[in-house]
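User: My collaborator sent over this chain with a note saying "see what the structure looks like." That's all I know about it. Can you take a look?
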Amino acid sequence: YPTFSQSLSQLFLVLFPPFPGPFPSFSLSPSLLFLVLIPAFPTVKPRLDIERCPPQQNWTEGQEGILTCNATGTPEPQVWCSKDGNSLKPGTRHPADRAHAGTYLCRASSELGTAERNVTVWVQCESGARGLGANWDTLGSWGSLGFL
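Assistant: Without extra context I'll predict from the sequence alone. Here is the result:
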């Protein structure tokens, strides 16, 4: 739901005189005017929805991986994600490797608040992953947390 920011740089100043009768009269003293602040545009808290920030994402080892996580809100929120203290900027390209696999905490923040979502990145490993002691037949081709 829209809320209204208190930032004066985003507000219009509108003066309304009191209307004592059925017809507006602007001949009253300026001291009797009411001050009303109207937002230039409605503001909306940050939001991370499933379409713009899917909770599960699949990458393939050795190929380009992009963590997809965008937020809605006005003013536009800043979005960043982290896993184990390491940040990964959403929307940037990375050569996907097993170290990228895991659950990221993604946050969208603006002056109106913060929205959070957990995003799990799965990295499909190359066929050489058997050397890690994985049971390929049981686990299938998708590994989490960098190992199968």
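A starting point for your reply to your collaborator: The longest helix spans residues 136-139.
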